[in-house]
């Protein structure tokens, strides 16, 4: 394409009408979030990015709040529900945007904000990899990788939640408890592992590195971790997983081996995504208030957009244990 890209060029490349492009780049009603994100991406790729700030040049506000998400998975989807509800009566539109097509890369937030920042009044970053971001618009981070920093942040008590899970298993009589860990570049995952270790120490149970396997919050790796734990000469009687996806993978692997959950193996997850309650058997898990994370982030962002000083720039929400049907006392050892 020669010369400067036009709105017609963007419409043709995106397979939409010129009117749709106009609505998308100016943050107006009538365009679905996925279509808007595609149009904005194509506009930037074609060099039409200068038009993305058109509405902000016409007025001081665009009426659009951005939500930047690395991947649309159960946790971020629940958070997004909370954001949507909290913004429901605010008069703002929500633009949920993910710039990634594959694995998460450090610094994706910078690229996304650079691309779309001129169209937004403020933005919420879900599990950002970096928090040293340009302060051109108000920003709030949910569950940032590095924990509290210069940005306003909201997260949940991963350490305390992990202790709740372990205290339940230890209270049932389990002493050989495996752990399927999360991503070691995430502060929240490290806190869950710290809670696992702390509960063992408090109960006088020696830490055994063979009982910790990396699941990385991924289905394939979590299945591998479960198989490794269940292949041990003396397998664990219980497994605590750092998120529900990993815990459900553990249950599936155990059942595929002919083990009954919880008779032969107790399992506890973390998050309480909707799939946890629908599983067979329903999963005992630690509930972090995912939708409330979204609610709190909106409250903080609204205050920042109104140029108010935050009373608490870093908020940590409580977690609680939800007991269902994947935990029981350990079965007596045969022989």
UniProtKB/TrEMBL annotation:
It comes from the Bacteria. InterPro entries: Cro/C1-type_HTH (IPR001387), HTH_LacI (IPR000843), LacI/GalR-like_sensor (IPR046335), Lambda_DNA-bd_dom_sf (IPR010982), Peripla_BP_I (IPR028082). GO terms for molecular function: DNA binding. SUPFAM superfamilies: lambda repressor-like DNA-binding domains (SSF47413), Periplasmic binding protein-like I (SSF53822). Keywords: DNA-binding, Transcription, Transcription regulation. Pfam families: LacI, Peripla_BP_3. Residues 5-59 form the HTH lacI-type domain. CDD domains: PBP1_LacI_sugar_binding-like. Residues 6-46 form the HTH cro/C1-type domain. This is LacI family DNA-binding transcriptional regulator. It comes from Amnibacterium soli. The lineage of its organism: Bacteria, Bacillati, Actinomycetota, Actinomycetes, Micrococcales.
């Amino acid at each position: 394409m020669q010369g400067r890209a036009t709105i017609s060029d963007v419409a043709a490349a995106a397979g939409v009408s010129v009117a749709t492009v106009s609505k998308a780049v100016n943050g107006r009603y009538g365009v679905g979030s996925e279509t808007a994100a595609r149009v904005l991406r194509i506009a930037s790729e074609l060099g039409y990015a200068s038009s993305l700030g058109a509405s902000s040049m016409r007025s001081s506000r665009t009426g659009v709040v951005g939500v930047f998400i690395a991947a649309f998975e159960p946790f971020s989807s629940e958070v997004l529900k909370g954001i949507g509800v909290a913004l429901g009566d605010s008069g703002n539109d929500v633009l949920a945007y993910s710039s990634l097509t594959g694995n998460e890369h450090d610094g994706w937030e910078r690229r996304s904000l650079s691309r779309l920042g001129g169209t937004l009044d403020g933005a919420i970053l879900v599990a950002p990899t970096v928090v040293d971001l340009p302060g051109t618009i108000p920003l709030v981070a949910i569950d940032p990788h590095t924990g509290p920093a210069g940005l306003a942040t909201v997260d949940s008590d991963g350490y305390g939640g992990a202790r709740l899970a372990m205290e339940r298993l230890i209270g049932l009589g389990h002493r050989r408890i495996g752990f399927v860990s999360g991503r070691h570049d995430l502060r929240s995952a490290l806190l869950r592992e710290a809670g696992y270790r702390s509960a063992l120490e408090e109960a006088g149970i020696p830490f055994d590195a063979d009982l910790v396997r990396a699941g990385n919050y991924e289905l394939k790796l979590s299945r591998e971790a479960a198989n490794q734990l269940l292949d041990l000469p003396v397998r664990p009687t219980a497994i605590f997983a750092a998120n529900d996806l990993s815990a459900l993978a553990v249950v599936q692997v155990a059942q595929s081996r002919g083990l009954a959950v919880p008779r032969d193996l107790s399992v506890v997850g973390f998050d309480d995504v909707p799939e946890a309650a629908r599983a067979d058997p329903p999963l005992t898990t630690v509930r972090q208030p995912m939708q409330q994370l979204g609610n709190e982030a909106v409250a903080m962002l609204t205050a920042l957009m109104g140029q108010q000083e935050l009373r608490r720039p870093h908020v940590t929400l409580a977690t609680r244990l939800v007991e269902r049907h994947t935990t029981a006392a350990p079965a007596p050892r045969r022989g």
